[in-house]
Amino acid sequence: MKIFLVLSCLISLSFTSLAQNLKVNQAEMYYKLYRFGEANPIYKELIQKDGVKVSDHEEVYRHALVSSEKCRDYNFQYYVLGRISQSEKYTFDDAYSYFQLSLFLGFYDRAKEIMSSQIVVNSVDSRKMLLDHYKNGDVWSEIRKDTSVYKITNVDFNSGTGDFNAIYHPKGIAFSSARNVAYRKSTFDNSPYLNMYIYQKEDAKVEELKFLETPRHDGTAYYDSLNRVWYFSKNYPSTKDVNLTTTGLFIFDENTQTETAFTYNSPEFFLAQPFLSEDGKTLWFSSNRTGGFGKADIWYSTKNNDDWSEPVNAGNVINTVDNEMFPFPQKNKLYFSSNGHPGLGGLDLFSVLFSNEKASDLLNLGANLNSNGDDFSLVLDKTEKTGYFSSNRGEFIDNIYSVVINRLEFVYVGTIVADLNTEKIQAIPVIVKKEGSVISTIFADKDGKFEFNGEKNSSYSFEINQQEFETVKEDYSTVGKTASDSTFKDFVLVSNVDIALTIVDEKTKQNLRNAKVEIVNKKTNEIISVTTNEKGLIELKLPRNNEFEVRVSHANYIYSKTSFSSVTKDKVIASTIGLNKIEVGAVLAIKDLNYDYNKWNIKPESKVELNKVVAFLKENPNVKIELSSHTDSRGLAEFNMNLSKKRNQSCIAYLVSKGVKKDRVIGKWYGESKLLNKCADNVKCSEEEHWKNRRTTIVVVSID
Question: Where do you find CATH 2.120.10.30 in the chain?
């Protein structure tokens, strides 16, 4: 009896094992034929019902992941990844897919757990950078913080079987759909083939575009209504036993009823989702062609006569290691969908500024336009306030939604105020900067007015830099604003004054050519550096009503500093500055060679002055100088004498460190014995008065 029972168990186990092997073989056969719709339920039974182990059937699990994704059976895909995550076969690739699928299904807590798991923390994979974005702040809360911008409505021409990629057409809305009209299904996932349709607004009817129909998938598309030309994607005809093909771009001319293939199609990769720029010169599309950054990238090709250029990748501001799809260009922006940038899950909708073949200012368009599902194929009307997009939120079936955009509007109105005629005012460029980078140049109308529309939570500056006027700059910020508003500002242009400075020898009054002149604006600290011409003259324009310091140097002459004012109503200011030749006993005109109380270290501003002494000595190698250092009266005389010595030694050491030979510098120190004012012992003085005594002076002692 026992033997009979044992044999029965063995037979039962043998039949179970045989049945499982048959299922595995059947599922693998379908998988190899790309018949995922038939393979997926078998994998599901093997893993969920029969409970096959990852360690024994890793290939079954790997193929189940592919099949479930192709069949959009995302809950089963999530289950399979969960089982793999508990096995020794778990990799960073699995963790990354598990994280993205968790976002897609709205399981944000699980996504956070995966993000903090050791397999992610210890990874050096480049894709970890995307996960790190979520760690460095609550990305999801940031994207969800303002859901008042978009009003979304499910359109009434959705079929419930998959509708997407709405585009504007003169008759209404053209779109792609998997509605089962011709009863043709793909063996790939048992879903109906895609066809192109038009929803006609006048009679609310849906009509198939028969002239674009093929036996396989047709769409997505863009329609050039001006030239009556379709740009669309479709499957290549299959020449293999296995019904698996890729897609290319095609151009159909309604006028001639002719179809041409895009020059850069290839069976090695797909091209899809075409969209033509407003000027008709740039064709945007998505492709996994060679040279990209990831799975699918955004590309564009420009038109030269009747030819299209070699496609150009839109760059890594837009493209990532994952998918970027459905480009939509409008004005200076490019809208697209991506699951490679931080988002709510699946494909999110983004925008960038795109100018001069460069993208900037990447922006997630936020909830509720974006969801945890796939959100894609956004198009907007000319006002940029209404449009359509597609999403599989909810039941993971693609639907088309209309959207009304209620954005906050921040209008900056500037008025250029100047005594100029209309033509001159309109020719003055206003430079607009955002975070220090130029983003636009705008011009005023005949009344001097210009307008700029700012974005929320942004900071800008407006600048007018015209030679004949003083520079005008105004800052503008929308940071923290929660309601639309308008800002009005006058830009008063103050004309510059013409300056004519002549540099001469103080004694002979001879003009000095090649004198180096620095003009420092005391208000802005801006420095203008110029050199005198053969007449010892410099001519330039300076802003009116400002104070300046003029610094002049010349070989064999003492460095000079003098004050200069442009506070005048005159059109021209002419002035002459005399330089003294280098003579024994001449005092070098330097400033800021003072010290803090009880200190001997050289301050940064003093180093600037000593650098000028270095330059002077290099230009005049036959000159020797003497440095005299002093203290104020506070403290004992002996202490102050030693302190002044240290100050002197610090200055000389600095000069020597800059290449000055030590034998060209003589040092002397006097403690408190040579005060410049009344601040002797027991005399009450201000700190500023004491500061004047804590100094080092420099004189010329010999000229060889």
Answer: 150-239+246-405
